[in-house]
């Protein structure tokens, strides 16, 4: 049986988190500043239920953490280096070819 190195597992987990546009927008919003779910839902223009599902995914992936603040919960990136990684990925992709799009994975079997 083939074993996957921990580094590859972590990169794959990060890639799965980035595979959804809402999660990408959420990570980029949290890159700017920690925020409460209600504020994030308003900022992203999505329902709180939908946001909650995406936050749970990002928490399970270890990319964001929930911080209790009184009776509310604030979310932030689990590590400040994730913000730098997001910036590096964005600039690298734009530098390579900003006009390219990834075809639908189901149609083309890509991504």
Automatic annotation (TrEMBL):
HTH arsR-type domain ranges (all copies): 3-100
SMART domains xref list: HTH_ARSR
One Pfam family from the record: HTH_5
PROSITE patterns linked to this entry: HTH_ARSR_2
Gene3D superfamilies for this protein: Winged helix-like DNA-binding domain superfamily/Winged helix DNA-binding domain
Protein name per Swiss-Prot or TrEMBL: Metalloregulator ArsR/SmtB family transcription factor
The species this protein was found in: Streptomyces gossypii
């Amino acid at each position: 049986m083939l074993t996957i190195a921990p580094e590859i597992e972590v990169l794959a987990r990060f890639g799965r988190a980035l595979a959804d546009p809402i999660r990408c927008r959420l990570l980029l919003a949290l890159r700017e500043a920690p925020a409460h779910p209600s504020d994030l839902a308003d900022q992203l223009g999505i329902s709180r239920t939908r946001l909650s599902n995406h936050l749970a995914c990002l928490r399970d992936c270890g990319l964001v953490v929930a911080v209790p603040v009184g009776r509310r919960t604030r979310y932030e990136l689990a590590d400040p280096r994730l913000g730098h990684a997001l910036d590096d990925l964005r600039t690298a992709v734009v530098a390579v070819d900003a006009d390219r799009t990834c075809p639908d994975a189901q149609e083309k079997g890509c991504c």
